[in-house]
Design goal:
Largest sheet: 8 strands, mixed
Strand order of the largest sheet: 3-4-5-6-7-8-10-9
Distance between the termini: 56 Å
Shape: elongated
Bound molecules: coenzyme A
Number of strands: 10
Oligomer: single chain
Structural class: alpha+beta
Number of helices: 6
Mean pLDDT: 94
Helix content: 25-40%
Low-confidence stretches: none
């Protein structure tokens, strides 16, 4: 809203701009400065938001044993339902769930131009699984699959396989070579290891006593550029 205050202190509305001038010398930039922000930060947030909306609208239909499942990008309001999926798996400690939440919040804040790429599987309009992955710093082609989780209500139907295939396709499209997934070597993670093997992953590194004494870090990897 373009306002001017005259010499008697009366405000006048000159016009309402649906699409204001966002140039650094225009009124919006001055308003941002008065509000304590910067026009550069505003540009960054606007681009991240546009990218986030675009990514959320890219939907791939994946065929699973439970029917066709849409896979899409992170959408506004997804963080809490996706944290709830992590909790319902019963596979993660509270501190691990906290880290998962931080990843989702960062992805939500930065959009797809940020580090974390998040993809969400839906069933009957509700999020039932998700992946988060990103290019490992200092590598130009190795990607880390940081998180994959599927709601126990729909596990065993192929949703996890669909999510991991979707991640691999995205990494391949971006010119990546490796998808790596770290997990724990304890018995509690046998099912997770079986899942990675069934999806074509092999152990590429093993470091004993990594997480705790008796709890190794097992890194599964798959080349996706072949
Ligand atoms: C691991 C997880 C993502 C698998 O998702 P899912 O949707 O149940 O897996 P899928 O139905 O797509 O299974 C894909 C393949 O893995 C195999 N698999 C899945 N779970 C398995 C298990 N518990 N034991 C053995 N094999 C298993 C399936 O048999 C299937 O193979 P097939 O298609 O050749 O028959 C899911 O169980 C989960 O969220 N677990 C808890 C969280 C976790 O451990 N995440 C990984 C660490 S971050």
């Amino acid at each position: 809203v373009d306002l001017r205050i005259d010499e008697q202190g009366r405000p006048w509305v000159l016009e309402v701009n649906g699409n204001p001038d966002i140039g650094p010398g225009a009124g919006l930039a001055r308003m941002l400065r008065v509000a304590g922000g910067t026009v550069e930060d505003f540009y960054r947030r606007m681009v991240a938001e546009a990218g986030r909306r675009a990514a959320a609208s890219v939907v791939v239909q994946a065929e699973t044993r439970g029917g066709s499942v849409p896979l899409r990008g992170l959408a506004p309001g997804d963080v809490e339902p996706l944290v709830a999926v992590l909790e319902r798996t019963g596979a993660f400690r509270d501190d691990e769930v906290d880290v998962g939440r931080e990843v989702l919040e960062e992805a939500d804040r930065d959009g797809p131009s940020g580090h974390y790429q998040v993809r969400v599987a839906e069933h009957l309009g509700q999020p039932v699984g998700w992946t988060a992955y990103g290019l490992i710093p200092l590598s130009d082609g190795a990607w880390d699959l940081y998180w994959i989780a599927v709601d126990p209500a729909v596990q065993g139907l192929g949703v996890g396989r669909a999510l991991i295939a979707d991640c691999e396709a995205d990494v391949r499209r971006r010119g990546g070579r490796w998808v790596l997934a770290e997990t724990s070597g304890t018995d509690a993670y046998d099912a997770t290891c079986a899942f990675y093997r069934r999806c074509g992953y092999a152990v590429v590194s093993f470091l004993g006593d990594f997480y705790r004494v008796g709890d190794a870090r097992v890194t599964f990897g798959k080349r996706v550029d072949g």
